[in-house]
From TrEMBL:
SUPFAM superfamilies (UniProt xref): ATPase domain of HSP90 chaperone/DNA topoisomerase II/histidine kinase
The reaction(s) this protein catalyses: ATP + protein L-histidine = ADP + protein N-phospho-L-histidine
Record key words, sorted: ATP-binding, Cell membrane, Coiled coil, Kinase, Membrane, Nucleotide-binding, Phosphoprotein, Transferase, Transmembrane, Transmembrane helix, Two-component regulatory system
Annotated protein name in UniProt: histidine kinase
InterPro entries the record matches: HATPase_C_sf (IPR036890), HATPase_dom (IPR003594), His_kinase_dom (IPR005467), sCache_2 (IPR033480), Sensor_HK_TwoCompSys (IPR050482), Sig_transdc_His_kin_sub3_dim/P (IPR011712), Sig_transdc_His_kinase_MctS (IPR017171)
Residues spanning the membrane: 7-27, 203-226
Annotated coiled-coil segments of the chain: 286-313
Cell compartment(s), UniProt: Cell membrane
Pfam families: HATPase_c, HisKA_3, sCache_2
Histidine kinase domain boundaries: 253-449
Organism: Marinomonas phaeophyticola
Membrane topology category: Multi-pass membrane protein
Length: 451
C-alpha cells in the first residue's frame, strides 16, 4: 500500500468508525426515546379510557338512582327494575354493564345472557386471571380498575379489556363495565410504525451523508495528493535547475581561472623557453640564457601554486586530512593575512559531519568572506559554528557598511549561490543587513536528511 492510500485510509477509517459509533448510539437513543414516548402515549390513552369508564358507570348509577332511593318498593321489584334498566343500557358499539353478587353470581350480562344466574367466582381468562374476584375486590375498595381478557362482540374474539366496578350498597351488588383496548393497541402499532419509519429514514440519511462525506474525503485527498505531487515535481525541477546552475557557475569560474591564470602563465613560460632556445642558437651569453630560464622556472612555480589554489578551491585537502574545524581555521588565517581583516572564529562541533554538510559550511564561509572582502569595507568578522543532535548552525557577522536588502541585493555578490546551496540540502538561510550596521548571515543545516 502506497503512502497516498495510507493517508486516505487514515482519514476515512476514523471517520467511518466515529460515524458508526455515533449512529449506533443515536439509534439506541432514538429507540429508547420512542419506547418512552409510546409508554407515555399508551398511559394517556388508557387514562382516557379509565375516565370514560368512570363517566359511563356514573351515568348508569344516575339511571338507577331513583329506584335505589325509593325504599317504598319491594326489594325484588326494585331489583328487577334495576336489572332491566342495566340490561337495556348500552353505549358506543360494544359497551354494556354487568352486575354480580359478592359471591360471584352473575345477575346482568346483556351480550352473554348464558352467564346470568351462574356463579363465576372461579372464572379465569386465558391468562389465568380470576377477573370476577378482582372486580369485586376493586368495588369493595370504593371503586377500581382491573385489566383482563374477554370476548369482544360480534365475533367474540378475545381481546384485552379494562373494567371499572363499584358497589351498589343497597343490595351489596357489584356494578361494572369495561372497554376493549384493541383500538389503543392499533393506535400504538401505527404510531410505532411511524416512529420506526422515521428512525429508518434518519439512519439511511446518515448512511447517505457518510457515503457522500467519504467520497468527498477521498476526492479531496486525491486532489491534495495530486497537487502536492505536482508541487513536489515543480520543486524538484527547480532544485535540479539550481544545482545545474551552481555546477555551471563552478565550471565557468574554473574555466576562467584556467584561461586567465594557468593558461597565461604557461604561455609566458613557453615564450621564455623559446626565447632562451633562440638565444642559445645565436650563441648569446650564457648568463642571458640562464636569466630567461630562471624566469621560466619562476613562471612554472607560479603555475604550480595556481594549480594548487584551484585544487584547494575545488576540494580543500585540509577538509579531508584534518576536518572542517582545521580547514576553516586555515581559511580564516589566510584571509586575515591577505586582507588585514581581523577574524574571530569559534567552532563547537560534537562529532564528525557528513561530507555534504562540511563542504556546504566551508563554501558558505568562503563565499561570505569573499563578499566581505569585495563589498563590506569591514575590519572585523565573527564566525560561530555550533551543533546539536539534529542541526548544525552557522553565524557570520561583520562590522562593514552593510546594505539595503530591498535595493542592493544583487546576484553578483554571491548571496543567491549561498541560498541555493542551502536549499539543495534542505537548510535554512537568512540574511540581515542595514546600512552602516554591518551584515549578519545565519544558516541552519539539518542532519537527519543527510545522515
Amino acid at each position: 500500500m502506497n503512502l497516498k492510500s495510507k493517508i486516505i485510509l487514515l482519514a476515512v477509517v476514523p471517520l467511518i468508525v466515529a460515524t458508526a459509533i455515533i449512529t449506533y448510539l443515536s439509534l439506541q437513543s432514538a429507540k429508547d426515546l420512542a419506547a418512552q414516548e409510546l409508554a407515555i402515549y399508551e398511559f394517556n390513552l388508557i387514562n382516557v379510557k379509565k375516565q370514560a369508564l368512570k363517566s359511563h358507570v356514573g351515568i348508569a348509577m344516575s339511571a338507577i338512582k331513583p329506584i335505589l332511593d325509593d325504599y317504598s318498593l319491594d326489594d325484588k321489584v326494585a331489583q328487577e327494575q334495576v336489572k332491566k334498566i342495566l340490561t337495556r343500557l348500552t353505549y358506543d358499539d360494544d359497551g354494556y354493564f354487568f352486575v354480580y353478587t359478592m359471591d360471584g353470581v352473575n345477575l346482568v350480562h346483556p351480550t352473554q345472557p348464558i352467564f346470568v344466574g351462574q356463579n363465576l367466582w372461579n372464572f379465569q381468562d386465558r391468562s389465568g386471571n380470576y377477573l370476577i374476584q378482582h372486580l369485586i375486590s376493586a368495588a369493595r375498595q370504593g371503586g377500581g380498575f382491573h385489566r383482563y381478557i374477554w370476548e369482544k362482540p360480534p365475533y367474540m374474539i378475545q381481546e384485552d379489556k379494562i373494567g371499572y366496578s363499584i358497589m351498589i350498597e343497597r343490595w351489596d351488588w357489584m356494578l361494572g363495565t369495561g372497554l376493549y383496548l384493541d383500538d389503543i393497541y392499533d393506535e400504538l402499532a401505527k404510531t410505532q410504525a411511524i416512529m420506526n419509519s422515521n428512525i429508518q429514514k434518519s439512519f439511511f440519511s446518515v448512511i447517505v451523508i457518510v457515503i457522500v462525506t467519504v467520497i468527498l474525503v477521498i476526492l479531496l485527498g486525491l486532489a491534495i495528493n495530486l497537487h502536492e505531487h505536482r508541487l513536489a515535481d515543480s520543486r524538484l525541477k527547480e532544485l535540479v535547475q539550481r544545482f545545474m546552475r551552481i555546477q555551471v557557475n563552478e565550471r565557468r569560474r574554473f574555466s576562467r581561472e584556467l584561461h586567465d591564470g594557468i593558461n597565461q602563465l604557461l604561455v609566458s613560460c613557453k615564450f621564455r623557453v623559446e626565447l632562451a632556445t633562440n638565444k642559445l642558437k645565436r650563441n648569446h651569453d650564457v648568463k642571458v640564457i640562464e636569466g630567461e630560464l630562471d624566469k621560466a622556472e619562476e613562471l612554472i612555480n607560479q603555475t604550480i601554486n595556481e594549480v594548487r589554489q584551484i585544487s584547494h578551491n575545488l576540494r580543500p585537502t585540509l577538509l579531508d586530512d584534518l576536518g572542517l574545524d582545521a580547514a576553516i581555521q586555515s581559511l580564516t588565517s589566510q584571509f586575515s593575512e591577505r586582507t588585514g581583516i581581523e577574524i574571530f572564529y569559534s567552532g563547537k562541533l560534537i562529532n564528525d559531519l557528513p561530507d555534504e554538510i562540511e563542504i556546504t559550511i566551508y563554501r558558505l564561509i568562503q563565499e561570505a568572506l569573499s563578499n566581505i572582502e569585495k563589498h563590506a569595507q569591514a575590519n572585523k568578522v565573527t564566525i560561530n559554528i555550533w551543533q546539536d543532535k539534529t542541526t548544525v548552525k552557522l553565524e557570520c557577522l561583520d562590522n562593514g557598511k552593510g546594505f539595503s536588502q530591498n535595493t542592493e541585493l544583487l546576484p553578483g555578490i554571491g548571496l543567491i549561490n549561498m541560498r541555493e546551496r542551502m536549499e539543495l540540502i534542505g537548510g535554512d538561510f537568512t540574511l540581515e543587513s542595514h546600512k552602516g550596521a554591518g551584515t549578519k548571515i545565519y544558516a541552519k543545516l539539518p542532519l537527519e536528511q543527510t545522515l
